[in-house]
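Honest question from a wet-lab person: if I give you the sequences of every part of a complex, can you actually get the arrangement of the whole thing, not just the pieces? Trying it with mine:
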Amino acid sequence: MNIREEARRMKLDAPKLAATTLEERNAALREIAKGLEEKKHEIFAANEEDVREATENGVAPAVIKRLKYTEEKLRDGLAGINQLISLPDPLGKVQMKRELDEGLVLTRISCPIGVIGVIFEARPDALVQISCLCLKSGNCAILKGGKETARTNRMLFRIIRDSAIKAGMPEGCLKQAELHNEIDELLMCDKDVDLLIPRGSNAFVQYIMNHTKIPVMGHADGVCHIYVDKDADFEKAMRILPDAKMQYTAACNSVETVLIDRAVAGEFLPKLADMCQEKGIRLRGTEEAMRLLSQHAQNENTAGQQTAGDTVATADERTDGVGTESTAGGAFEVMDLEEFHKEYLDLVMSVRVVDGVVEAVDHINRFGSHHTDSIITENEETAAYFFQMVDSAGVYQNCSTRFADGFRYGFGAEVGISTSKLHARGPVGLEGLVTYKYLLQGHGQIVGDYASGKAQFHFRELC
Amino acid sequence: MNIREEARRMKLDAPKLAATTLEERNAALREIAKGLEEKKHEIFAANEEDVREATENGVAPAVIKRLKYTEEKLRDGLAGINQLISLPDPLGKVQMKRELDEGLVLTRISCPIGVIGVIFEARPDALVQISCLCLKSGNCAILKGGKETARTNRMLFRIIRDSAIKAGMPEGCLKQAELHNEIDELLMCDKDVDLLIPRGSNAFVQYIMNHTKIPVMGHADGVCHIYVDKDADFEKAMRILPDAKMQYTAACNSVETVLIDRAVAGEFLPKLADMCQEKGIRLRGTEEAMRLLSQHAQNENTAGQQTAGDTVATADERTDGVGTESTAGGAFEVMDLEEFHKEYLDLVMSVRVVDGVVEAVDHINRFGSHHTDSIITENEETAAYFFQMVDSAGVYQNCSTRFADGFRYGFGAEVGISTSKLHARGPVGLEGLVTYKYLLQGHGQIVGDYASGKAQFHFRELC
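Yes, you can. This is the full assembly:
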């Protein structure tokens, strides 16, 4: 059966899955946890083959680490399922109950979205997490994982689906897509698939967004900022910056740009440059930032107090405003303003000197990707302005941008992070996988009577 | 200034509008109401010219009625503005407040979507409603109305924008697009426009959806159903059906298809046919429906009790399953199953006999547009099944589908009705024009400490 036919079948099964009780869905999750535990050796064996092949193909060690499905990852996965079981039912919540007129009652109730397609990177734990989130929220899911973990995915998927169906979930609750061309087939299913959640590279997510009529939830890029305000506690800044850049450099919520208040730039920039040199982070930035760094280095030189680790040079060889300099803290590359749009996902950081919080906010709203941005300040008034004006899914004060994550927000798990402003924004957990419908119960009421004035609405909240 | 540049400017003004207080936004609404009242004669004069031109161009009287901006429509518009002023602030609502760890507090707060483009039909009252809804919800709006009311729109827009700016709203809060080619320009502004709300014909909305990367909220078609169950109160059904079809035939929430439980079809169909003949509604349907109607007519004949208004004939001239018959209640056209997808927006109704509520639901989920569907039944169990299983924005019992409307739901006003399952579903009022952001306040926390086990999350709800 091809993806289109399968999607049509799932669409018809979707209301059946939506009608299951919380107990039934939790029983399915328990069955899945049991199945994964019982068949773990088969999973590990399949995964070893995937890892062996990837290694033979010269896949980078950092990526191999993500492909590996270990006892520890299984344990985390089972803990995640148990946490999911303990969460309240996202379905059937009465969000509003209003009497429109006597005997005419409007109720808004939460329900699943329907059929969701999730296309994710080569990470076996992602398959477990996503399928369980979809089941708990009563959504049918079509899952397509990265090809490097094909064997592991197939094994995990079979165990998860068999367990779910054994526990009474409808046949069409889960479907695995395995072939790459099935992605394009999936993109055509706008009549039957209600939502697509692509995870992966900027280019991949863009491709999905540009080639389907199905609504897409996710983010293409994560250009996150940290703004160091004049009232910043530098110690906090120097703790937060390396974490935000290096705790997981390739993550969407890692920092790409540091904005520094002009009032403290001369003092802070050299510290930043030193830290970057020490940590192996390449620094790029505006001419002004470079000038300040050079000045500082000269001053240090003049005072004869050059500190260890500084390689100092002045900007005399540079032409046309762009070039690489060796300043305090090591190499420093001057960049164009438009390059601030760039997501490095690497040990590179852009730096710009700004005229206080107002210019910092303008820069973030203009060059950022509306993902997650943080201010370092002890001034609550400045922080309040930043919170109000920054147009991003996550706006932080005095903490690392890396906190933008479903687990860390206490959602149990996430299917992804959304930079869209519609529906779910930020990390998307169970709540982002539901919609609602309006139920209206009457006794023969017609609109004609209200239009003619024979009857009148008198709204009364019932809950 | 072209639309693109204007949109970019509005994007920068959007956080300023978002930061206005409820009092400031309400003051702007009061100023607008005052302006409209004071300049009403200029508005009426402009409208008279529009109406004269439309009449000269041979525009249909029903459409002319919508173009006209009368004292009564102004009064309704002012009442709407006053109702909007009385509604609570949709912005700045704390939707969640959670301590992730000591001194690390996550808050989810409602905020405007940003810049919204609304393209609407030639109805001057729509311009007033939409611009005021956007202002109250703190959204910048680009408005493009139907060309038949160009002069009225220009006058209304000028008064509304001038009043808003006089009351302190930022310059970029409202922008009018007047030329048709500006729509295509608007569709390209995916970097600066956060949401498009198109209103109008199916073809127009489809065009918008297919030609932009901007998220679109709305509905292309409204194929609404009424299912007459075996436990239906026929009297209610006969009250509701003409209202749902005729109270505003061209509306998206008017009924297109009647599904009848086989158990009562023989009894109900003739009544339906009589009503349709009386009201001038053309009936189309499946062969079975036609057979039942013919049988009824024959029985009536045999018993010599033909009632007035019935034109009776048997199905002997028909070939290949499609044709027109004259049966009880007048002309009856046999149709193919696939035609049940059709939205008539006219005095035509499709009818199908189904095997109870289960088949009715399957039909609705397959052929409907997930807009609004109603069951007529006195059986609460059957109604509960219908509520649970029908996958539509509005699911009703014993009332007209025409109730699907922001005013009737008590939202004060609506910008449109959404059949999307993401973000807002059904009639979209103030609540559908806001999103949220996550604010995280810390004291230097980094993710590395939680990853290493040095620190642990302990989630605690603060509200």
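Two things worth pointing out. Residues 3-218+428-438 of chain B form a domain with the Aldehyde Dehydrogenase; Chain A, domain 1 fold (CATH 3.40.605.10). The longest strand of chain B covers residues 434-445.
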